[in-house]
Every structure is written in structure tokens, then in C-alpha cells.
Amino acid sequence: MASTLGTLFRITTFGESHGPGVGVVIDGCPPRISLATSDIQAELDRRRPGQSRLVSARAEADHVEIVSGVEDGLTLGTPIALLVRNEDARPQDYAEFGGLFRPSHADYTYEAKYGIRAVAGGGRASARETIGRVAAAAVARQFLAAAGVEVLAYVKRVERILALAIAPGRVTRAQIEANPVRCPDPAAAAKMIRLIERVRKRGDSVGGVIECVARGVPAGLGEPVFDKLEADLAKAVMSLPATKGFEIGSGFAGTLLLGSVHNDPFYMEHGRVRTRTNRSGGVQGGISNGEDILIRVALKPTATIALPQETVDRAGRSATLRGRGRHDPCVLPRAAPMVEAMVLLVLADHWLRQAALAAAQVASRPGRRAPRRR
Questions:
Q1: Strand, helix or coil at 308?
Q2: How far is CA 53 from CA 197, 295, 337, in A?
Q3: Domains and CATH numbers, the chain
Q4: How far, in Å, CA of 210 to CA of 204, rounded?
Q5: What is the pLDDT of residues 240-268, one digit of tens each?
Q6: Of 79-93, 164-178, 337-351, which range is least confident?
Q7: What pTM value is reported for the model?
Q8: Which whole-number Å values give the CA distances from 146 to 6, 21, 142, 371, in the listed order?
């Protein structure tokens, strides 16, 4: 089972939803990066359950422990291990339907692949696994922020309610965090909140779209073939639970335009190559062009609902299942920091890969003398 992401900035997450704990091991983080527990905890607090009536009521503080790789507030360049212990696990909530396959969950497919599964909460398929990703991304954010890179994700749409009063180039963290749905358009946010609360009371769920902008990303990140920046971003965010679609820049709407309209014209500004429009979403030919990177991620309605659903058990016998436990009526408010996390992890990895390439180019310049052997 693959639980590792990245080439130079590599993370490996571990733990199950209702096990003793979850966490991550980070390998490849540069040394002497300022890092405190509070830096990581601030991000985990944004994704934890129990924040409002719009999300799961599971009572988890998600306190992070730095187990290795940091000393006196600085990274050592060695593997960083981060651990969050589960405090409110209730595996008994899943006992009564342990032999049933929950509709649109990973229950059936996990058993089909491995012949075994963690029944309680879906194990590794649970969104609780993302704690390790968000914790690791808090580390990536530290050294990317020092380089002027900022990544912000917010709720763009819930069902048919679309936030229109958002300027990705100017949106702020304060605007995003101003309401529990994490939508920086106050009017749309109010409508979204009312919709989610109505759906929750009915025992149902609702989905939508997260938009994410990365500002300050320099030109040159990404590879031209299989490791295109948008390909790695798509893989990363689509590995999150409940994701069903990915767009960058104009996305599917770009298919409605002529090439003469869709192309981003170049111009020079203060000695820097810019584009007058950004339908490419900050990536051209798989490589960042220095403009804002703009992506959107579609998330389905939460699969666990309180309404009765048709299913079968392991023997193929028909059954009716009514979901129990503590689940989000809408995953989007907590998914925003998760999407941010995946973008940060990909950018951190490609940042280090580009730095390694630049160092190799300097070392291989004509006329550069190789160091003497002694």
C-alpha cells in the first residue's frame, strides 16, 4: 500500500481512523528551518472536527507531538516525525454494520483488493489520515513562506450556491476564516451555511468545489513530461478523500473558447515576463510561469448519511444500512486546509528539485574547475 508522496520532500503518513493515533514522517526537509509545535498546531486546528455545527462532532483536540528532527526550534535536516494521538475513537459505532458495505465508501474495494479492512471509520480511507498531510504541509509552508510563496484555499461553491465576489489574487486568510464555511464571499457564505444546516437536519449531505491559489511561485517549477506541475497537483489533491474532479486555470470552461481568446499574451513588466491573462492557471508546458497558480477541486457529498440506503453484506445478501457515527454533512469547510496542504507539499517538492537542478547547472558550467582531490 503506497503511503508516500514526493521525490525530494517526501512524506509518509501512518495510522487508522480509530487506532491509537495518526501521523507522518517527513524526509528531505532542509535544515535550519524555524519550526515550533504551534506552527503545526495552527494548521491542524483548521482541519480538526468539532469546529462548528457544519462539520463532524468528533471531539478531537488533535494535539501534535514533534517526535524527531527538530531541536531548539530549528529543523535538523533529519527525518521529522509528527504524531497525533486519537482521543475520541468509538469503534463500537461501526460494529453493527461491520459485515455490510457502506455505499460509496472504500469498504468493498478495500476487501476486494486486500481481503481485509479496518471496519471502524474506514481505517486509512478515512479523512482522519489527512492529519499527517496537513501537519507535513505546515513544515513545507514554513520554508516556502520565507521564499514569498503563499497558498490559500477556500470554498468556491456548495451545491448550486456559487461565490462570485472573490478575487483570487487578493483574497486573505482573514477573509477565509471569517465564517465557519470558509468562503470569503460573505453573502454566499451565509447562503451556504443555511443550506448545510438544512441538509444536516434531514440526515443528508452536500458537496461542492474548493478553489486554491498559490501566489509568489517563481517561473521554472515542474517538469515537461510525466511530472508536469499540474499533473503532480492533480494527483496530490485527487488523493484526498471525497475528491471527484480537478481543474487548473480556465479548466473545462476553456473548452468553450477559441484559441485566439484563450491564449495568454506575454508582456514585460519591470524586467519580468508576465501574461496579461491567466487562463493557463500559472502553468504552461507543465512548468510554472510565475503567475498565480489557480486550481479547483470538486468534492462529492459525504458518503455517510443518516438516511436508509440499499447495500449488501459480504455474502451478497441484500440489506438496508443507516449511517451512524459522527460525520460531516459537508466536507468542504475542513477540506480547504487539506487542499492547501497538498498544494504546499507539491510546491515544496518541486522547489527543492528546481534548487537541485540549479546547483547542478552551476557545477557543470564550462570552464568551472573540478575540486582537487587530496
A1: strand
A2: 8, 28, 18
A3: 4-354 (3.60.150.10)
A4: 20
A5: 999 999 999 999 999 999 999 999 999 99
A6: 79-93
A7: 0.93
A8: 21, 31, 7, 32
